[in-house]
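[Discussion] Sanity-checking designs against the backbone

I'm trying to build intuition for which residues belong where. Below is a structure token string of 232 positions. I'd appreciate it if someone posts a full sequence so I can compare it with mine line by line.
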């Protein structure tokens, strides 16, 4: 999210924390310490993708640290909504690309080969499927760490499946804003419906012609920044 951090830094004080730990609890603790050491609390926390879930958990566990929570392109909060994600992605790829994605998934699941490289190639296909009309990326990519991804995602998926992820919502008292693209394969309903039941104060913003990376969408980039800055 470096491009977003840079854009927002023109008008706001910004931190862009990076996660280096391989468990959810240690990532949450790492994020908490980064905030406490480098910011005046309470802060507005903006989380994208996995960062949305991590921010959700941190806010529930440390309500005094966060005055508003903004979830961007969050994964669905209930497992039943996740079943359509991969089929949607594959439907947007060619037969050859679908076959290669299947091969890469098998490699990742069995843990063979250079998993960092495999995850990077897999991410390329996923990004293509997740984008509506993308702006070419500048190539600004930090090194991938497949071991952290594998460890944390396994734990996170189990947290969602058990219902404990959504349970954190009962502990959140600050306002929550959801920003989501209508072309994002992570179904918007899987965020809106569960959170509507659990949160006391939640606002939902659906961006048109927008995929998983709102700041890289030709049609939605401006609307994304307008919506986000309005909430800061």
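Best answer:
Here's mine. Compare freely.
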């Amino acid at each position: 999210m470096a491009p977003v951090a840079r854009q927002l830094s023109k008008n706001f004080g910004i931190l862009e924390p990076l996660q280096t730990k391989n468990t959810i609890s240690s990532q949450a603790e790492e994020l908490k310490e980064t905030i406490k050491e480098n910011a005046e609390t309470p802060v507005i926390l903006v989380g994208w993708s996995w960062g949305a879930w991590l921010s959700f958990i941190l806010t529930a566990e440390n309500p005094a640290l966060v005055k508003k929570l903004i979830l961007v392109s969050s994964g669905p909060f209930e497992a039943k909504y996740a079943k359509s994600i991969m089929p949607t992605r594959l439907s947007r790829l060619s037969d050859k690309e679908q076959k290669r994605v299947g091969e890469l998934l098998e490699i990742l699941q069995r843990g063979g080969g250079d998993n960092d490289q495999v995850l990077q190639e897999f991410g390329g296909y996923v990004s293509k499927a997740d984008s509506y009309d993308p702006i070419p990326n500048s190539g600004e990519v930090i090194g991938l760490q497949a071991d952290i991804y594998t460890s944390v995602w396994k734990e996170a998926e189990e947290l969602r499946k058990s219902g404990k992820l959504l349970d954190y919502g009962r502990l959140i008292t600050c306002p929550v804003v959801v920003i989501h693209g209508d072309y994002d394969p992570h179904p918007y309903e899987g965020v809106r419906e569960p959170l509507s039941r659990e949160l006391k104060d939640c606002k939902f913003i659906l961006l048109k012609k927008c995929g998983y990376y709102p700041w890289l969408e030709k049609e939605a980039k401006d609307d994304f920044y307008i919506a986000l800055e309005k909430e800061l």
